[in-house]
Amino acid sequence: MAMVSLPQPRSSMSDTPNGLQIVIPGPRNLLISLFIAGWLVGWWFGEMHAIEQIRSGQAALFIVGWLLAWTVGGAWVVTWLLWTIGGREVLILGTGRLSIRREVFGIGFSREYDLSQVRDLRIAPPRARARGNGDMNQGGLCFDYGAKTIRFGSGVDEAEARQLIQAMQSRIPSLQASSSLIGGLS
Questions:
Q1: What is the pTM of this model?
Q2: How much is the pLDDT for 182?
């Protein structure tokens, strides 16, 4: 019987002048991405048909409303597809701050968090990852920041999430989880 090879982490870590940098690729699923790309072809034909009806003056108010909803839905699906193909999260654990940048093919946005206010770095509860509400920012890791839970590391497996937490906590011991959460991390 063949031995299963040891899986490698999806993320990468490096020391930079700004601090510890962790790069986590977005979740990848080739079959779903191909299916969605094919679905978008059909979506495009529906979009073009509705636009043609509006241009010809044959469209009812319903078609105009439908086109608006169809366009918003299609834009969301395109964004999701791009995230699964070329998305990544770049974390920088620097002096006094934690920066999380979400980007697709280099275009994105960053959020910076005051490290003195970051509490309970931990693996995101399975319920939060399985809600299925389409939130691309849900992930395998989370921390509390004031009265909000910040999720990141979408697509990271639980074992890799533990490795990332250990690396971050070795740099910043204050990121230790509270005693009520320690059992969930071991």
A1: 0.75
A2: 43
